[in-house]
Amino acid sequence: MKDRITSAKIDPATGRALPSGVEYRGKGQYRARKRIAGGERIHQTFSSAKLARRWLDTTSAKLELGQFQDTRPLERQTVHELVGRYVREEMQARDNDRKGHIPAILQDEIAQLALVDLTATAVRGFRDRQAEKYSDATVVKRLNLLAAICQHAIAEWDVPFAKNPAAATAVKRPAGADKKRNRRLVGDEYERLLEVMAQSPWPDDVAFVRFAIEQGTRREEALTLRWRDIDFDRHSLSLGKTKTMHRAIERGPEIRPLTPGAARLLRSLQAQRKSSRPGDLIFDIGSKDAFSVRFGRMTKKAGLRDLTFHDLRHEATSRLARIYTNPLELRRVTGHKDIKSLDRYYQPHTEDLAAMALAYEKRNKTD
Fold first, then answer.
1. Model confidence at 233, in pLDDT bands (50, 70, 90)?
2. Do residues 209 and 83 share a domain?
3. 90 and 237 share a domain?
4. What is the tens place of the pLDDT at every residue in 18-77?
5. Phi/psi at 129 (nearest 5 deg)?
6. Are the beta carbons of 8 and 27 closer than 8 angstroms?
7. 169 in any annotated domain
8. Domain named Tyr recombinase: which ranges (predicted)?
9. The dihedral of CA 237, 238, 242, 248: what is its sign?
10. Domain of 265: which CATH number?
11. Are residues 180 and 344 in contact, defined by beta-carbon separation less than 8 angstroms?
12. Which whole-number Å values give the CA distances from 165 to 59, 115, 118, 144, 170, in the listed order?
């Protein structure tokens, strides 16, 4: 039996000679072998000699045209393993994604696929399953995260995807999910917000909100600030951990200009403190999750509809734009990764833009 499998040149099923490079391995098993660059052999088993020969012909043509890609690494690794590596090596500073979006990918059936089976069709199935349970915006974030993982694997780990199977060009995103949020404080809402936050059992809550408006930092950035991070003489603050730090070109903490309003607020807080040692946290508001719950309750109490703490970053960016009219300078203050991201947060009131046009016309009006 062994001799027939390894040396037979006739196909027992048809009585015909086997094609060169095809070996009969048993009933319904025909192994095709081909030598590739470096002298290494690749092989694949088929149910008929005809299919085996077709694979040989296709592989030979790809080798001759320089289009052949060895997919064996894709067969040996699963989506779960790829995502796990990305989390360990590239997502140490992205807590929200690690705790929210990554588990959703790993718990879906797509995670069990070998990378060779991670096709645009498989990703579309993932998209549709997610859409049954989550908002369009959440689905888009998870698709974009999966696409980013695949792109990183191609560029940095030499994973031989022919193309990114989760890219927006391959898998359509839910329509309308990319609409930017445009909640701004209007009328006396800011005063009402400060008034209700002053009633919080955590005294620093109101200062934390004021700082968010004056400086435009993200919640986690402000929450981790210590007095040693503030340089009043140089009018700057130092952030050791930011959302976009993994993209930073320069090493070390991110240095941002300290706005005058934020500086006055911090000096006032420092004067009130019994202790403001360099290592002390500036704001004592408990955990970020507990603060978010309090903020939601307080805004509801103040009658402020559909207002999240992150909306204050939109408010701050739009206010700071009046001072920093150059978008590149504004981006250095707010910490946005690029102009496109900044544009999502800059949401001027229509009447303010109209007033600017009227003021310009008045200044340049000739008799």
1. very high
2. no
3. no
4. 888 888 888 888 888 888 766 677 777 888 888 888 988 888 887 777 766 666 777 888
5. -65, -40
6. no
7. no
8. 180-361
9. positive
10. 1.10.443.10
11. yes
12. 22, 10, 7, 11, 6
Q: Amino acid identity of 286?
A: G
Return the C-alpha torsion angle 222, 206, 295, 97, nearest 10: 0
The H or E element that residue 87 is part of is helix 79-90
**Is the residue at 165 inside a domain?**
no
At 92, list the tokens: 């140490």
- Residues 99 and 62 occupy one common structural domain: no
Q: State pLDDT tens for residues 148-198.
A: 999 999 999 988 888 899 999 999 998 866 666 788 898 899 999 999 999
Give residue 2's pLDDT band: very low, low, confident or very high (50, 70, 90): very low
Three-class DSSP category at 198 = coil
Tokens for 179?
A: 């609409």
Domain range for 328 is 189-362
Evaluate whether residue 177 is within a structural domain.
no
Q: How far apart are the first and last CA of the chain?
A: 107
Kindly indicate the confidence band of residue 96, based on its pLDDT and cuts at 50, 70 and 90.
Answer: low
Instruction: Name, in order, each residue with C-beta under 8 angstroms of 235's C-beta and a sequence gap of 6 or more.
Output: 257, 258, 263
Q: What amino acid occupies position 258?
A: L
What SS3 state is found at 154?
Answer: helix
